[in-house]
Amino acid sequence: MADYKINMKLEKTPMPEQEPQVRNRNYLEVALGYTPEMALEEATRCLQCKHQPCVGGCPVNVQIPDFINLIVQGNFEGAYQTIIETNSLPAVCGRVCPQENQCELVCVRGIKGQPVGIGRLERFAADWHFANVSAAPEKPASNGHKVAVVGSGPAGLACAGDLARLGYQVTIFESLHLAGGVLMYGIPEFRLPKSLVQTEIQQLRELGVEIECDRVIGKVLTLDELLDQEGFEAVFVGTGAGLPTFMGITGENLNQVYSANEFLTRANLMQAWRWPEYATPISLGKRVAVIGGGNVAMDAARTSKRLGAEEVYIIYRRSEAELPARHEEVEHAMEEGIIFHFLANPVEIEGNPDGWVTGIRCVKMELGQPDESGRRRPVPLPDSDFSIPLDTVIVAIGQSPNPLLRDTTPDLACESWGGVIVDQESLATSKAGVWAGGDAVTGAATVILAMGAGKTAAQSIDRAIQEKNS
Amino acid sequence: MNKILAREQLNSDTVLLDVEAPLIARKALPGQFIIFRVDQEGERVPLTIAGTDPQKGSVRIIFQTVGKSTLRLGDLKVGDRIENFVGPLGKASELDEYAGKRVAVIGGGLGMAIAYPQAAYLHQIGAQVDVIAGFRNKDLIILEEEMKAVSSRFHLTTDDGSSGRKGFVTTVLQELIDEGARFDLVLAIGPLVMMRAVANLTRPYGLKTIVSMNTIMVDGTGMCGCCRLTVGCDVKFSCVDGPDFDGHEVDFEEAIRRSKAYLEQEAHDYREEQELHRCRLTGEVRHG
Lengths: 470, 288
Hints:
The complex is a heterodimer of chains A (470) and B (288). Chain A is an alpha/beta fold.
């Protein structure tokens, strides 16, 4: 039990945010983080339950009550050190984890009132550390074994971090020019500042992790070459879900129809919002529609607004209740003036003879019987077509695993939809010496699930190498 | 960071660079491309590989200084470094089945630089290679000697007749076909309108025609779909499914429209960069 006085307020200590009508015109972070006073107030809401349901709810098992207890004691650095024992990227996770479905979902305080703001406290501890402590983490003694990690997204970083802490010499191969994967190209600056991602990645470099950017594994080096010629005893594949899905409707190849991946990569990784200072342009116009209802759709819509679009729509074929995006993201989007068209399904993107978008034609939908996902299946209403005049369409209906590596690795068994097939326990693939995890295995999911997979694979790889050498 | 090992100005706006990239040099095959980013603010620009030297560990690129990034790349000197240089990307051209066969390799302008490794490879595996090289005028001719060395027959055309035959590459191709030349394959590399013209010419003859689609790209690994094009009934990504495609199946009208997606921004950047470029050359201070 807690040895401090519990704060029995039913609601989380509010976190300051930029005003919606200010922030939808800038790229600065929306949520501003707790002050030490706020953190203390929120931390004392934690009951220090003996059975610690929150720890089990966390895919990387952060020792949540312990770090919260340290915050209560004013030992913020101790809190950070406790978190990074199991989580290499706390500043990232404190911002983008869907805590409401994980640690906070099972928090006892959530039975009556709101759960403890675990994510906010995690973010606080990480931000405090980076603002106040400059000491680099100590580099562990090398055990002389080399492991390669393909992809520097959340799965790869988590795997690399855990292996490095065990003394492995880890090299991450990244195809893009900057490390971070979806944290760099996908999630926008206003939700996850890119400098912060690089700061957390730098911590891994301090642990001895080497990162080689501009290396497309499968092209410049194959998995076999990594294992047979480059001296790596194991490879972890964390190549993510980077292949965009399009709708397959007329007009999808018109100019200013983007996949969410292209749009967000231009805006985030390539910094197109700073054009012409940064050379990559983005072409948008005044009226933008984003197709889809997930977090990526919310990111694309909110980014469009910040790039100067006057009207931004989300077009989603089910109703508000079925939106797959985090509640917080939907709320933020609505506050920022994004207009939602629920129960609408695009059937054609309209264009002019020069090949530019002029509008989108949709049909109205109603919800029928639940489908295999348990959500009610949307059914088109007859003769319900309507058009919205537009300049830009962004398709955000999902991503699947990138085929590049599996195309060049015939003995890596994959599902028909592209996911790498793994043993559920160990995350070993069909190919000896190769493990895989994250979106490359599951299809598009969350940062923290990918990190959890990276951790699991790190344990399996460690076990396998130990066994081989004993 | 990749070091520039050699630089040559091929004509007023075309530059050749040999770039240190040993891993790419070891792996690259004709038809594949690299993506470069000239500096930290730079965009990702694809360039088809114009040759490799695995011994020296160098990759050759030939490009026209027609945009912000290529102007900056063209201003780099031997010993300077390019911020990012990644490859080999895309699928290699499938040429092995043409050993002993007759192939027309058609290059228009800068396309000649990309066509060269293909012509050389075909020549090396024992194909009969007719090279048809087309340029706007004699001042723009590049790689003439190199091309002659790897072709059984070399045909040069210029739009204005200032060197070689007056006319277009299609003029020569049509004549060769009319004279009874039986090609097993036509490889056409150059501006979209040229490749479209070649494909339209060969279609009635059922003459297999491969084109190399130099679309706008961002990542170059299949992630963004910016390079998508319609080929037959399918949407393909030029970066991972290509850049080579069946010229009779490519929707060129769409590809031409899509190539203009950033014309306005490109024009703006080019004007700005030309001014800076001039200042770099003259040491003048830029005002405003």
